[in-house]
């Protein structure tokens, strides 16, 4: 970190030094370290509504929302009071408890699932869904898409190699090749590649897992009909269709991305995974789906899956309270704020002469830099001028707006975002857009939270 940064953020700089002495890179999840944009990560000390306050007492408009969970905004009074109430009566029982049943009922009422198992993180949800799919079908192969992130599950860290149908190559040291050998990685939105993979390996494929809409390579919407095609192809080959709604679930609509697509088109995934919003800012996640598939889980069936803190009463109460408050008005206000913010960003970039595409799905969006062609795949996204993002990000940060510290992440809006936030955006954007226009080309990194 430079002297200038240290002077501008003395408390965050000091905390970062302390953190680096005791934690790898000074963080507990890589993208928080600001490696993709440079500079000092801000150490937050409090949050309320759509605002974050850091250790230097600077307040920011928050467009990260803890990477998705904070649908209602921070420290929502009803969520906080419900959490305080339940925590005062004990924080974990290791027995069945009431809020976990109510949360499961709420999820079943909203999403296309007949039965759910609660877990503690999105990673655990996708890992367990895949084990279940393999146990249910008796097959080993998995299909996933390049650029889709499903948590740091060993097998799902496989990335695309060259060629249309590639067998998985581990995306990180520490994952043995045999773990990803059964993973087929395909380009997103490429129906021909999916058809080819299923023609070749169809009767060996346990499941295809995809983000309901991709949000971990920046936002990349599924082409119209793509998810329906995946559901159909899986069914034809006796494989399970696993839709990962950890990011989109209960965010894009009452029923997540499925609510704005599958519900209208008349198809259902066999399994879905959830996290983020359904935990209301606490560690709670879930996977669920067809009852006959879910009944393969222990203790009903033979596939083992368990967790000391699964269904934790505090986490499930936070999630349940959040979901119960997430009515049509909440989704409408998030959609409207997001549309207005997208317009402001796009107008400012146009004004500064920066070619760009606002990549969007529902209220989630990100900016694709240096092109006017919408990205449909990870390869498209990687071809952008991502180096324009760092200067843009820092200009916004200096003007009191906290954006995701990577061009490859979605921006998240909450129901607490209001006109004050839009005016802060409007005053910050012209200088940030000019900074993006003037940015010198550099190598940029991508990372996922
Ligand atoms: C689509 C998707 N699946 C799974 C995960 C993993 O969730 P967690 O970070 O809670 O393990 C994420 C996290 O960002 C995600 O976006």
TrEMBL record:
This enzyme's EC code(s): 5.4.3.8
Names of required cofactors: pyridoxal 5'-phosphate
A Pfam family that the UniProt record links to this protein: Aminotran_3
Classification via CDD domains: OAT_like
SUPFAM superfamilies in the record: PLP-dependent transferases (SSF53383)
Catalytic activity as recorded in UniProt: (S)-4-amino-5-oxopentanoate = 5-aminolevulinate
PROSITE patterns (UniProt xref): AA_TRANSFER_CLASS_3
N6-(pyridoxal phosphate)lysine carried by residues: 276
The keyword Acyltransferase belongs to this UniProt entry's keyword annotation: no
Location of this chain's protein in the cell: Cytoplasm
Source taxon at top rank: Bacteria
Gene3D superfamilies assigned: Aspartate Aminotransferase, domain 1 (3.90.1150.10), Type I PLP-dependent aspartate aminotransferase-like (Major domain) (3.40.640.10)
Metabolic or biological pathway, per its Swiss-Prot or TrEMBL entry: Porphyrin-containing compound metabolism; protoporphyrin-IX biosynthesis; 5-aminolevulinate from L-glutamyl-tRNA(Glu): step 2/2
Family: Belongs to the class-III pyridoxal-phosphate-dependent aminotransferase family. HemL subfamily.
Name of this chain's protein: Glutamate-1-semialdehyde 2,1-aminomutase
Source organism of this protein record: Aeromicrobium halocynthiae
Gene: hemL
């Amino acid at each position: 970190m430079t002297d200038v940064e240290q002077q501008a953020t003395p408390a965050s700089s000091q905390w970062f030094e302390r953190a680096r002495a005791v934690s790898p890179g000074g963080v507990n999840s890589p993208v928080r370290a600001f490696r993709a944009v440079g500079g000092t990560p801000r150490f937050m000390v409090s949050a309320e509504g759509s605002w974050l306050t850091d250790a230097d007492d600077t307040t920011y408009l928050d467009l990260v929302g803890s990477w998705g969970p904070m649908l209602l905004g921070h420290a929502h009074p009803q969520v906080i009071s419900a959490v305080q109430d339940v925590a005062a009566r004990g924080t974990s029982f290791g027995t069945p408890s009431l809020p976990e049943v109510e949360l499961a009922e709420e999820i079943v009422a909203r999403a296309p699932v007949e039965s759910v198992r609660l877990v503690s993180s999105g990673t655990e949800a996708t890992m367990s869904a895949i084990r279940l799919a393999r146990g249910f079908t008796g097959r080993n192969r998995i299909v996933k898409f390049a650029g889709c992130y499903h948590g740091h599950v060993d097998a799902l860290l496989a990335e695309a190699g060259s060629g249309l149908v590639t067998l998985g190559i581990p995306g990180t040291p520490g994952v043995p090749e045999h773990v990803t050998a059964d993973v087929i990685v395909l380009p997103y939105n490429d129906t021909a590649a999916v058809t080819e993979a299923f023609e070749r390996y169809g009767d060996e494929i346990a499941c295809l897992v995809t983000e309901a809409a991709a949000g971990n390579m920046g936002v990349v919407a599924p082409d119209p009909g793509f998810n329906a095609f995946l559901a159909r192809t899986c069914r034809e080959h006796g494989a399970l269709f696993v839709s990962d709604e950890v990011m989109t679930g209960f965010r894009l609509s009452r029923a997540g991305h499925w609510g704005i697509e599958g519900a209208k088109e008349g198809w259902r995934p066999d399994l879905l995974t959830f996290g983020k919003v359904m935990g209301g800012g606490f560690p709670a996640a879930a996977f669920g789906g067809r009852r006959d598939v879910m009944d393969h889980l222990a203790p009903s069936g033979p596939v083992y899956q368990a967790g000391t803190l699964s269904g934790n009463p505090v986490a499930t109460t936070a999630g349940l309270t959040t979901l119960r408050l997430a009515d049509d008005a909440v989704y409408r206000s998030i959609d409207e704020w997001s549309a207005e913010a997208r317009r402001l960003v796009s107008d400012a970039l146009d004004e500064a002469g920066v070619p760009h595409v606002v990549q969007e799905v529902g209220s989630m969006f990100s900016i694709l830099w240096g092109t006017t062609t919408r990205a449909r795949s990870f390869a498209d996204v990687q071809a952008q001028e991502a180096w324009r993002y760092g200067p843009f990000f820092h200009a916004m940060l200096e003007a009191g707006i906290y954006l995701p510290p990577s061009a490859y992440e979605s921006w998240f809006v909450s129901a607490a975002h209001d006109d004050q936030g839009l005016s802060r955006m409007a005053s910050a954007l012209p200088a940030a857009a000019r900074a993006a226009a003037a940015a010198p080309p550099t190598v940029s990194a991508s990372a996922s939270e």
